[in-house]
Amino acid sequence: MTRNESTPTCYPELRGKIALVTGGSSGIGLATAAAFAHEGAIVVVASRNERSARTVLKTIANSDAVSWIACDVSSGTAVEKLIDTIRRRHGRLDYAFNNGGSGGKSAPVASTTEDSWRKTIDGYLTSVFLCMRHEIPLMMESGGGVIVNNSSVDGLRGYPFPGGAAYSAAKHGVLGLTRSAALEHAVSGPRITAICPGWVDTPPVAAYMRRGDSTAAEIIRQTPRGKIASPREIADSVLWLCSDAASFMIGSPLVIDGGYMA
Q: Which residues are paired to 21 by β-bridges?
């Protein structure tokens, strides 16, 4: 059963720790920020749109423990500034969920423009590299930590509809990056892993399913569970990976897909 705001906390080790969630103003990111706050963590949400972020973050219980910092995670300068701000405000970083991402216009490979390809790779893959590049040193300064990268089932196989090749390539790259970085730090930390969600009820997916064709039915057909995941179901998995209960999860991705890849 998915937890809600009235559910007792599960991970006391998260209380008082510093948790960063990129792309934290909607969907999976917002649900994860709320879950961290529920566990008593001090949460930093990074996203691009201040107005929408400050509006939705007020809906989080314990919102006094949640702050917002502007950041385009595809920009190395912006990510460096983000981590420097966390260092200055909090002096440490214990958990990071690298969830933020954006892409160019989707199209089949033969008609994808170079600009769209680069925007998608930068938005979903280079962004994770930039975040880890700056998160790891700060975590090592404070004795370790946990990084969870958001990949996808599309990082494990090809995209099931035309036009998703660049996205799938980026998400495959996230897994290669995660595994390699995890091995580099397997002994001394931080502990690094990834999630591979299937279809999740986020605003982009909801819009995709409202297209008026057979897309929604096909998405449900692809998921043996018979429904797509809620953002909170994914958030709960992220928190488990961050907890001491997942202390031996290093590099290997956690697939959360309702049976999609089974």
A: 45, 97
The DSSP line for 98-138 is E----------GGG--HHHHHHHHIIIIIHHHHHHHHHHHH
Determine whether 159 is an active site residue. no
Q: How many helices (H) and strands (E) in the chain?
A: 9, 7
262 occurs within a structural domain: no
Closest CA to 103 of 21, 193, 173, 190: 173
User: Domain span at residue 113?
Assistant: 12-202+232-253
* 120 within some domain: yes
One of 124, 167, 208, 260 is an active-site residue; which one? 167
Cβ atoms of 166 and 120 closer than 8 Å: yes
| pLDDT value of position 6 | 62
| Reported pTM | 0.94
Residue 40 maps to a domain: yes
State the total domains in the chain: 1
Q: Looking at residues 225-241, what average pLDDT do you find?
A: 96
Q: How far apart are CA 192 and CA 177, in angstroms?
A: 10
Cβ pair 142, 93 in contact under 8 A: yes
**Per the domain annotation, does 112 fall within a domain?**
yes
Q: Is the pLDDT reported for residue 1 higher than 80?
A: no
CATH of the domain at 16: 3.40.50.720
- For 160-212, write each residue's pLDDT tens digit: 888 999 999 999 999 999 999 999 999 988 999 999 999 999 888 888 788 76
Max Cα distance, the chain (Å):
52
